[in-house]
Write a structure and sequence with these properties.
The complex is a heterodimer of chains A (349) and B (354).
Chain A lengths: L4 H8 L2 H13 L10 E5 H13 L5 E9 L2 E9 L12 H14 L6 E7 L8 H13 L4 E5 L1 H5 L5 E6 L1 H9 L4 H7 L7 E4 L1 E4 L2 H13 L14 H56 L9 H4 L8 H39 L1
Parallel strand pairs in A: 1-3, 1-8, 4-5
Antiparallel strand pairs in A: 2-3, 2-4, 5-6, 6-7
Chain B lengths: L48 H9 L33 E4 L1 H12 L9 E8 L3 E10 L1 E3 L4 E3 L1 H14 L4 E8 L5 H13 L4 E5 L10 E10 L5 E12 L3 H11 L8 E3 L3 H25 L6 H13 L5 H36 L2
The chains are: A alpha/beta (349), B alpha/beta (354).
GO biological process, one term (chain A): formation of cytoplasmic translation initiation complex
InterPro entries (chain A): eIF3h, eIF3h_C, JAMM/MPN+_dom, JAMM_MPN+_peptidase_M67A, MPN
GO cellular component, one term (chain A): eukaryotic 48S preinitiation complex
Amino acid sequence: MASRKEGTGSTATSSSSTAGAAGKGKGKGGSGDSAVKQVQIDGLVVFKHYQEEGQGTEVVQGVLLGLVVEDRLEITNCFPFPQHTEDDADFDEVQYQMEMMRSLRHVNIDHLHVGWYQSTYYGSFVTRALLDSQFSYQHAIEESVVLIYDPIKTAQGSLSLKAYRLTPKLMEVCKEKDFSPEALKKANITFEYMFEEVPIVIKNSHLINVLMWELEKKSAVADKHELLSLASSNHLGKNLQLLMDRVDEMSQDIVKYNTYMRNTSKQQQQKHQYQQRRQQENMQRQSRGEPPLPEEDLSKLFKPPQPPARMDSLLIAGQINTYCQNIKEFTAQNLGKLFMAQALQEYNN
Amino acid sequence: MATPAVPVSAPPATPTPVPAAAPASVPAPTPAPAAAPVPAAAPASSSDPAAAAAATAAPGQTPASAQAPAQTPAPALPGPALPGPFPGGRVVRLHPVILASIVDSYERRNEGAARVIGTLLGTVDKHSVEVTNCFSVPHNESEDEVAVDMEFAKNMYELHKKVSPNELILGWYATGHDITEHSVLIHEYYSREAPNPIHLTVDTSLQNGRMSIKAYVSTLMGVPGRTMGVMFTPLTVKYAYYDTERIGVDLIMKTCFSPNRVIGLSSDLQQVGGASARIQDALSTVLQYAEDVLVSADNTVGRFLMSLVNQVPKIVPDDFETMLNSNINDLLMVTYLANLTQSQIALNEKLVNL
C-alpha cells in the first residue's frame, strides 16, 4: 500500500515543515476524502507501546484513546488487551474495555475510543482480520486509525510506528459486504489503494520535556547501537523468507485464476456449440414438420464456474507490497552503512 | 536509642553534624560528603527529631560503605543492606513509562488538587524491585484528612492483572517534593495491599530547577517499647530499559529541541545519518579530551582509546574491496528483486481487472 505522497513528504522533512503541512491541511478541504490528515501522538503512548512489547514476545493489541481536533487525531493514552487464552472462555472483552474506560474517566484521562493498535512481526499485518477490525472501527468512528508498530525493526534502531486507515472506496466495498470481482472492479481498487498511511507526529508537553532532560542525565548511554551494526543479514533473510511465502501464495492464486478463466472460456465454447446444435436440430425438425424443441435454459445446463475470491488476492498483493517496501528501506540503510565502512577503511589505509 | 558510634564501622565522617531536622523537611547536605541516607522524616509521633536523624544513621552503615564518603552526594545514595523486612534489596529500577504516566496524570489532575497519587505495579526479585506499570488513583486531600479511593485501586489492579498476570502491587507514588503527614496514612493503606510498599515521589513543582525522583521505603524508628514512629528511608533509583524503550526515549528526547515540541518520524536514511552524527559527536568529545590531556592521562581511558582505534579492523585492501563489492551486490540484487516483485503484482492487478 503506497502511502500518500503528501504524507511521506511531510514525514521526511523537518518538524517545522510538518507543522506547516498540518497548517495547510487544516485550511483546505484536502485532496482526499479522509477525515484525518495527521495523527499526533503523545510521548506517553510511545513509551507504553514499547514497554508492553518489550515485556512479552507475543503480539500485543490494544485500544487507543484520545480526541479529534479538527483534522488531526490526537492520541493521548492507550491500554492493552489481555491475550486470548483458550481456558479463558468466559472472558468478556467488551466488559474489560468498558471497565477500563470508566476507570480512566475518573482520573481525567481521555476516554474516547479513537482507534486500536497492534504489534506486528516483520511487517506481516495485512490480514483479513485486520481489515475486518479496522472496518468495524472506522464504521463506528469516522476518524479511527490502526497503529502498527514493529518491535523487531525498532530493536534494529529506528522507531517503526505507522498509522493506517482504510480508503473510502474500500470502506464502501466492505459495507456492501460484496467481495466479488465485479464489485471490486467497479470500485477500481488496486492493492495500492487499500490502506492509506497517515503521517505521525509526536508531541510532548513541557513537563515531559523536563522529565526527558532528567532521564537523560541519569541514564547510561545505550550501549547497543544496533542501528549502525553491519551484521543485519538475519533480518533481511527473515524478510525475504516471508516475502517468498507470500509470493508462493500469490502464484497459487494466479493459477486458480487462470483455471477459472480457462473454464469460463471452455464453457462459452460449449454453450456456443450447444446452441448451434440446437439450431441445427430445430431446422431439421422444421424441415420435417415437427414442432421445434423448446429452448432450454442455457444457464441451468451450464453453470458458470465460481470466480475466485478477489479479496484474498488483494490482501496478498498488499502484503507483498509492504514486504517489498520494508526490504527496500532496509537495503537503502545497509548500503549507507557499507559506504561508511568503506570510508573508514580507506582512511585506515 | 542507638548512638551513631555503635555500629560496625561507621565511616570517618559520621553524619552527626546533620542539623536537627524539622519533621517534614529534608536536612541540608553536610559539608562532609555525607554517606548517610538523608531521611525526609515524617514521624507520626517522635519525641526527638535529633534522635530521629541519629537513628537513621545507626542502621545505615555497613563495612562496604567505607568507600561511601568518596562518592558524590547524589540525591539517592547507594544504600546499605537493611536488616529489615524489605524483600527486594535496595535498588528500585524504574521504567520510563512510569515517569511519563505520572507526569501525564499530574497534568490532568482535578482542579484544586495539589498532587496526584497512584499505585505502582511490577515485580520483585532478589536484588531489586522492578516497577513496570502504574495507574493513578483518585484521592482527596485537605488540611485535616485524606481520602483515597481504594475500591478503584483494587478494580484497576484486577484489570491490569488480566493483561499481565505477573505484576504485583509494589507501592505507590505521589507528585510533589515533600513527604507530608498524609503520606504516612496513605502508606499505611498500601501496606495492607503489599508487603513493605515503596513510595516514589516525583517533584513536579520543579524545586531547585530539577524534577527529582526519589524512592523510599518505610521503616520503624523510635524508642522500642515506647512511642514508635515511621520514617521513610530512601532507596537507590535506577532506570531500566528494554531495548525498544531506549530507542523510543531517544526519539522522544528530540521534542526537547523542537520549537513547538513536535517531531515527525524520520525516514530510513535520515536515521542512519542521525546515528552517525551522534557517533561523530562522541568521537569529537573523545578527541578533545585526548588533546587536552596529553601527559597525565588516565591509564584506563588510554586503554579504551586504544581498543577504540583498533576496532576498525585491519584488512588487506583487496580483500576488503571484494567483501564490500559482494555485499553491495547482494543488497542491490535484493532491491532489484523487490522492485521486480512489485511491478509483477501491479501487472497482475491490471490483468485481472481486464
